[in-house]
């Protein structure tokens, strides 16, 4: 597996302490990307079982997140093909209000409609990821997601 600067290895499965005696799970992809699973547990779940769960979201995460005391590497598994592809994110120029899709290393001009279903290009802190997972499992809106939503037409 390829080393990932300062945050483990590609394929590492992490268990994230969400408080209230529950855990969420993520996976290290190509830097700085991580996938997070639609799985919450009260006890540690084996890495092989974690990766069978659906991916909830894929975002950029700060390297230091995996070193958080609340994030523990519980295994390493080769990435499935669908996790090897670089995800696309949307951006919006704050002055011109024009949209772009960030694809690997370039910005591609886009319409608002092209951006529907994409995450906003942003690098997340560990505590914000934890909030997002906790809010998802509690079925409440997440303030970080809400603040970065695609604006209404």
List the strand order in the largest sheet.
Answer: 7-3-4-5-6-12
- Regions with little confidence, pLDDT below 50 for 5+ residues: 1-5
For the termini, the CA-CA separation is 43 Å
Q: Indicate the structural class.
A: alpha+beta
Number of strands: 12
Total DSSP helices = 5
Q: Spell out the helices and strands N to C.
A: EEEEEHEEHEEEHEEHH
- The Cα radius of gyration reads 16 Å
Pfam family, one: Imm26
Organism: Paraburkholderia antibiotica
Protein name: Immunity protein 26 of polymorphic toxin system
Q: How would you describe this structure to a colleague?
A:
It is a single chain. The chain is α+β, with helices and mostly antiparallel strands and 153 residues long. It has a domain at 3-81 and 123-142. The protein is 19% helix and 37% strand. It is built from five helices and twelve strands. It has helices at 47-50, 81-84, 112-115, 126-137, 143-147, and strands spanning 3-4, 8-9, 12-19, 22-28, 33-37, 55-61, 71-76, 88-92, 99-103, 106-110, 119-120, 123-124. The strands form three sheets. It has a six-stranded mixed sheet. The model is unreliable at 1-5 (pLDDT under 50).
